[in-house]
Write a structure and sequence with these properties.
This protein is an all-beta fold. The protein has strands spanning 2-10, 21-34, 40-45, 49-54, 65-67, 74-79, 90-94, 97-103, 111-117, 123-128, 135-139, 143-148, 152-158, 164-169, 175-180, 185-190, 197-201. The protein has a 5-stranded antiparallel β-sheet with strand order 1-2-3-4-5, with no helix packed on it. Strand 7 (90-94) and strand 8 (97-103) form a beta hairpin. The chain is globular and about 50 Å long. The termini are far apart.
Length: 202
């Protein structure tokens, strides 16, 4: 799937030569992200809108959900991948806000957003720990914040106020790594007998 000026195109591995599925957008697309099950494609546009497109099997829904009202550029997406969840959770970042989107059981209500505040400056990165609802967010303030169930603040991991430029969970173990603008790499380990994460720098 590729996003560009005024549209998103998707090709199928079953036949690369087939014409792609095309979804028209009002302006340029900045970022796209599929959820783990392939049910939804999230895309952001330069007019500070998130377009959430359900995949209908052969084409996208022609009436996708549009999330607006963001304070600034939408910088990142993250999808939860917990199999027990009926619907995945979508997380977006804009300015100093992290917004958690959950699909309401009533289809007429759609997706509802909850703002998580705790950062100073732009939040550049969000990422779920694999197969859990533990969310990490990081950005200009040099803080990695952990949010239990993508809702409740759990812990802040300090990287000496240098902007976080990259963030990655270990795919299996309880570890998270972050790189900062000063060239530092820090790895936190989940302690078995204590609460939260401890750090090791590199």
């Amino acid at each position: 799937t590729v996003g560009g000026y005024q549209g998103v195109k998707m090709w199928s591995v079953a036949d690369w030569d087939e014409d792609p599925v095309y979804f028209e957008m009002p302006t340029a697309t900045g970022a796209i992200a599929w959820d783990a099950r392939g049910k939804y494609l999230a895309a952001n546009t330069i007019d500070k809108t998130v377009v959430l497109m359900p995949w209908m099997g052969k084409d996208f829904d022609t009436q996708p959900w549009r999330m607006q009202g963001f304070p600034g550029k939408i910088r990142a997406f993250a999808w939860s991948d917990v199999q027990e969840q009926a619907e995945p959770i979508l997380v977006t970042t804009s300015g100093d806000e992290v917004v958690v989107w959950r699909k309401h059981s009533n289809p007429n209500i759609g997706w509802e957003g909850e703002v998580l505040r705790g950062h100073v400056g732009n939040v550049n990165l969000v990422m779920f720990q694999p197969h859990t609802s533990l969310l990490a967010s990081a950005g200009e303030d040099g803080i990695v914040s952990l949010w239990q169930d993508a809702a409740v603040w759990n812990q802040s991991l300090d990287t000496s106020t240098s902007e976080i430029t990259c963030l990655q969970w270990h795919p299996q173990l309880g570890k998270i790594a972050a790189g900062n603008a000063q060239g530092g790499l820090l790895v936190w380990h989940k302690f078995v007998k204590a609460t939260g994460f401890g750090t090791r720098s590199a």
